[in-house]
Amino acid sequence: MQSDVLQDNHGRRVSYLRVSVTDRCNLRCTYCVSQDMKFIPHPTILRYEEIMRVMDLAVSMGVDKIRFTGGEPFVRKGFADFLVKAAEQFPDVELCATTNATRIGEHVDRLAETGVRLNISLDTLQREKYRKITGRDMFPEVRANIDRCLAAGITLKVNAVAMGHVNSDELADFVTFAKENPLDFRFIEFMPIGDGTRWSRDSVWVADDIIKEINEIAVVEPVVGSGRNAGPARMFNLVEGKGRIGVISPYSNHFCGTCNRLRLTSDGDLRTCLFSDRVFRLRPALRNPRLGREALERIIRAATAVKPIGHRLLEAMHGDEGVCHTRMSAIGG
Ligand code: SAM
Fold first, then answer.
1. Pocket flag, ligand 1, residue 57 (CB < 6 Å)
2. Does ligand 1 lie within 6 Å of residue 328's CB atom?
């Protein structure tokens, strides 16, 4: 049943839902963990049936892309089964998941059957550095799982948080990696999100600098339609390469004007902007037997209506501290 599409007060249509299925993660990335890692108690986490209800409503309001994230989605019990069910229930929706790829090995063939697209986070191609960034010695597993996914025909994007003095020395290796593998490799600017994470202005490796450096070491052609104003990623074909390379620049070049996203946290809060701590609580309505579909729809529409232009928040609050005080793994990056 299709109702009116979701739209905010700035005229932006919301068609992309990001669903965090857990705030827990098996890695402890230096830029993502905070000093006081308190996790959401289990009874507060939405059950898979509850997430399905929200997805069903969102799809009826015109959402046509859903990304599952976390925390690490594959640490939640039953996530692969849930993904298979979601793919059956929403055959016309583009389903994606963001993962650190440490635990997907056993699920690769089923994932390939669902047609889900994967974004894999990998900030370095060096085993020891991976251990230092993530706190776990799991680079070999991740690297092998990337190969498994490619062999199974899964569409892959590999994302690295671009950090000066951390992985900026690996550009040539990242270019080679993208040349040798049929995937999109994207640098994401380090964002000032989460208290106690290690963001500072100096730690940002800015997208324009990355592009300049790529051009110095490789022959690239801009992908048509992925320019500065065309959405989050600016992508480049690598001449004589299998894959593509690009940047996402939430810090230096905000794409708020075209933002079409709504986020559902694992405890059932709607967040309409990554850079704002404002939440709209869906869980009480989801768990109230007296409230039905209409009440939930009203909350989703009310939240969407006041979706902020996030870069104004960024500009107003820019400093060397985090802008949004909740860490990324709790929001669902
Ligand atoms: N566990 C999954 C993963 O590793 O992809 C999904 C959740 S993780 C929070 C999603 C993405 O957010 C990862 O690519 C991570 O590198 C990125 N991320 C976390 N904190 C960030 C920050 N401050 N700036 C930019 N990206 C960040």
1. no
2. yes
pLDDT tens string 94-136: 999 999 999 999 999 999 999 999 999 999 999 999 999 999 9
| Residue 1 within a domain | no
CB-ligand 1 contact for 326 (6 Å cutoff): no
Domain count, the chain: 1
Residue 216 domain-assigned? yes
pLDDT at position 198 is 67
Structural domain boundaries enclosing 269:
6-331
**Would you state the pLDDT for residue 226?**
75
Collect all residues with Cβ–Cβ distance below 8 Å to 294 and sequence separation of at least 6: none
Ligand 1 centroid – CA 61 distance (Å): 28
Query: Strands 269-271 and 280-281: what pairing?
Result: antiparallel
CATH of residue 237: 3.20.20.70
Is residue 58, in this structure, part of any structural domain at all?
yes
pLDDT of residue 315: 65
Highest mean pLDDT pick, 156-160, 195-199, 247-251, 322-326: 156-160
First-to-last C-alpha distance (Å) of the chain: 30
241, 235 contact by CB (below 8 A): no
